[in-house]
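Troubleshooting log. The previous run stalled partway through. Resubmitting the same two chains, unchanged.
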Amino acid sequence: MNTNFPVPDSKRLQRLIAEAYERAPDPDAVRVKRIGERLARKQPVQHIRIVNKWPWWIILLLAGGVATAAWWAGERWFGEHGPVSKSDESKISDKIMSKKNELPVEEQNTKAEQKAKDKTTFDERKSPVIYQREDF
Amino acid sequence: MPASRHLLERYCRQGDKSAFNSFYRQQSNRLWKFLRARGCNEDSAYDLLAEAFLKFIQVVCKDIRSPIALLYRIAINLHIDNYRRETASPIVSDTGQLDHHIDKSAGFDDEHEYLRALINTLPKDEQNLLLMRYWIGLTHKEIAGILEMPEGTIRRQCAAIIKKLQQRWQDSDEHQFPRA
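Second attempt completed without errors. Output:
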């Protein structure tokens, strides 16, 4: 009986582990078979989860494609036939313009001042001078 | 022999019971031996084998990516529950305070037997890791899923346990039979 076993390297040790347990005594075949039969009886008749043949991502892709097509078609249709016709559109814009022109005088003045201020501010912003010292 | 995963795909998608039976025949012996190696007595190992497969049937079709890892995860959890219930004394205690040295005078027919005895001196978790990785053949990733640890940790631990085993092999050798 050999009692002095040389220390194996890592690879050999890993192989020995697998061999050591594979060689362990097997279970009683009859008992294992009986367990298998019990499992077969306990399995539900229809255990299958309902798995579509079509993967879920294909369905998602198709739905997305249909939605995109519908949106595109809608855009095109509204573009041609639009909810408001062009003649009506021009009428509406004229009305809006005339209403604007009917503003009270004071408001018009305030608006003019504001416009002037905005213009200056706008011009100042456009100026290349970032900072200019004030001469007092 | 068809791979386990293909068998279970046939079982889950087509209800092919014979596919599941083939899977059971493939895995049952090894699982029983694993439970025995983990410290179960013979009868408990049969009971746990049945229970593990029963639970396995109930959940496997939800995710059949790693069926063997799932099976062993169930078996290990059942074994832990059983151990707590019975407070049976396994070959290796949880604290791993057993003598690390093997009494070679007890006689080992071959180094496989000696190695099994040596592995039994390791803490339980390390034994699980060793057997799942190098005997059952699970990947580091699958074991990480079972033990709920990062894959990198599993890799490092596997390497460390192999080194530890080599050290104990050497220490036992020197302890019992000091070199002249």
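Takeaways: Chain A touches chain B through 37 residues (CB under 8 Å). Helices of chain A lie at 10-22, 29-42, 56-81, 86-101, 105-126.
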